[in-house]
Amino acid sequence: MYDIQKIREDFPILSRQVYGRPLVYLDNAATTQKPLCVLDAMREEYLNVNANVHRGVHYLSQQATDLHEAAREKVRAFINARTTSEVVFTRGTTEAINLVAQTFCESQMQAGDEVLVTDMEHHSNIVPWQLQARKRGIVVRHLPITDDGRLTSRPVCRDTIATNLTAKTRLVSLTHVSNVLGTVNPVKDIIRLAHERGIPVLVDAAQSAPHMPLDVQDLDCDFLAFSGHKMYGPTGIGVLYGKEEWLDRLPPYQGGGEMIDKVSWEQTTFERPPLKFEAGTPDYVATHGLATAIDYIHSIGFDAIEAHERELTRYCMQQMQTIEGLKVYGLPPTASDQQERDAVISFNVGNIHHLDMGTLLDRLGIAVRTGHHCAHPLMDRLGVTGTVRASFALYNTKEEVDTLIAGIRRVSQMF
């Protein structure tokens, strides 16, 4: 049984008020709230196990190291990587993608070579490649989307993908789930088509990791990135998964302590992955927090989480259909599409500016996101300057959806 009230008790912030009204937190695609177990685990480590990892022979350092590496193993199991050597800790999805962009382009690409992204990417999967284009002369191409927010028709149209994979394509980098449209992309099919041409694939899993199980071996992706703060963990910690053979081939991302084997004035040799990419002191307390968040997700179970969030999304979209002038972007609100849409709904109402809608909903205690959502090219494709975005998590309720719908109606009547 999905005990939503018990779950909500794990998140004290959900009981607070905003402007004298109960908080309705629907900005989970930006960041999720943290359960007490995560906060307690990090507090406990700071109070009793605080010491730098890997380098110390004393008890506290050894204990902190054990927790840090146990977190790496927890992540490995969470995504079903073959070995912990394939799990690199970063500050988040953005840093993970930048790591691949810089090291892959440096070692595997030449001027004129292409990286293929999509029209629905977050800026963190666009700008790093553009920086490399400016620096190294690579070409950034983008896979277009359909009018209903898909990369391709269903079933996956091989021609649609194949025509965008050229003889110069060296890497495909795409989002698993759109942070604007909620579209769940057929990444496994796209990876297979890319691999048929010998092209590796990076998957941005920032929006999928909190909502569905990830199996990097089943997907057969070459790289995958996600962030702790979007999956009930702390900010400032993320993960880059890379197949071991790729991490071995890529050069270090940055230099410093921790990632070296030996340093002399003549040359430096480096550790093997993952330490090769983890210069400096890691946020070993945040890795423990991330591991605790993974445990929390598993304690509820992805089957239950997916079913709950899918029902919330379906119910919200049904209720939105009753509001005159409200337009939902992306897949239509039909039951058959729910497997292809994650717990994100972007919308506008008539001529009401998205910022006005979000600001007035906030005065009613409803936290939503407004603007371009770090996806300017997608906004251009949709023909809007921005949208209002409601995004759900495992602790949201139908009653909160009802509050959102009532709030949208109230704001709409003001214009």
Could you characterize the architecture of this molecule?
The protein is an alpha/beta fold. It has 14 helices and 17 strands. A 7-stranded mixed sheet has the order 4-10-9-8-7-5-6, sandwiched between helices. The longest helix has 21 residues, at 59-79.
Q: Note the total helix count.
A: 14
Unreliable segments of 5+ consecutive residues = none
The chain-level mean pLDDT equals: 95
Q: Roughly how much helix do the residues carry, as a percent range? A: 25-40%
Widest sheet: strand ordering: 4-10-9-8-7-5-6
Radius of gyration: 22 Å
| Portion in beta strands | 15-25%
Shape descriptor: globular
Largest sheet: 7 strands, mixed
Number of strands: 17
Q: Give me the secondary-structure category.
A: alpha/beta
How far from one another are the termini? 43 Å
Entry summary:
The protein has 415 residues and is an alpha/beta fold.
